[in-house]
Fold this protein.
Amino acid sequence: MSKSTSYNCSSCGHGHAKWQGRCAGCSEWHSIPDQPSAKMQTLGGVDLVPLAQVDQAQSIPVPTTVEEIDRVLGGGFVPGSVSLLSGEPGIGKSTLTLQLALRIARTGASVVLVTGEEAPAQVAARASRIHNRDIPESLFVLDTTDTRKVIQVMRDDKPQMVVVDSVQMLNSGEDSGAPGSPTLLRNVASQLSDAAKKHNVSLLLIGHVTKDGGLAGPRTLEHMVDTVLSFDGDRRNDLRFLRSVKHRFGPTSEAGLFEMVGTGLRPVKDPSARFLADRNPALAGSAVVPVLDGRRPLMVEIQALVRKSSDRTTLTAHGVPTGRLNLVNSVGQEKLSNMLSGLDALVSVAGGAKINDPGADLAMLLAMVSAAREVPVPATMASCAEIGLSGELRRVATMERRLAEAQRLGFTDCIVAPSCPDGPTGLRLHRAESVLDAVQVLMGISV
Ligand code: TYD
Ligand code: MG
């Protein structure tokens, strides 16, 4: 293996064996540093760079200063990265990105909004509504549907961020697929993404998805981008969730929570309090559980509605995985004598949250039992445990943080698995071995 030195162009990354004034890759002048970037090694005529010498600075995120967005992204957007923000029409994508653009531009960095979908006047009107101060001078709009113009802006002005609203509105300027076709969409995204990487611009593409995830839609772009963010919520309330579905530079489990108000999207400061705000503890069919949402504990209310099955039992899940509900119901049928037999059940997470946490198993079961027996769960009682196939209760991860959150929200009792560590003082733990024990603790009903 022979060793050579690489002088990489700061604009396009092209490597050169020795320093030169003009890049052989992108023809840019003075873009090659006079110090070599990494020792390159040549193996069988192919240049290899030792991983230890690769410049990590390229993947350091720049904070957006919108706390909920930075949480989801693990710090912010990485320069030169491409992100896709997808969601149903009307959910608030344009509002969220406009707020983001205003915040970034306030730091003095330049941001370009490509507004293929809305007239600049509409964007300006919305900006004044959601931003009660002067619009920063470094925020620009580009009213076009021509991909080549967007690329030109990235090349000539090198803004910190370009937002394309929406990627489905762009045409490629060449004959590369029928309008609205997946081929065209991929072509446009690939051209924009090459330009973003070459000029070190953070590129945010907005894509509309329909409820069924429409094949011609942005789903076909997910493999091409570094980060996929989904923005969704329940139309019946104002809560909106930002999640990272794919993220090459950080975690994918964190969610950001916003509330749509008259002046745009407002971060929800205390999500647990927000989720429990409309709970009526006097009603049967509801149980509260501290779930883990990324690293953040979150109190959610699980509701259940049961009624006599007409034929075969049907189970419907909203916000909880169907597989989990099936498991909980099967164990309940098996281990709780006849308490749940012959009943259809609908289980839902109040407030439109979507949870995927085995710690919510017990709360699902207790909500169903509470509904079946028409006995409310005491107002200050929570529960948190995974249910095993033999009906045993199992401890889940991060119990200390979950219990602290339950206590903070005013809960005094919590039903947990036998091996659960002690919680904060003031929170009584009821260690139950099995689902049957848990039901007995809860209601004092003999089964
Ligand atoms: P929008 O961001 O245009 O959605 P998308 O880009 O995903 O299609 O937001 C659409 C809805 O948000 C619209 O029905 C009105 C509502 N909205 C508010 O309630 N408050 C506001 O301040 C703004 C700007 C929008
Ligand atoms: Mg929009």
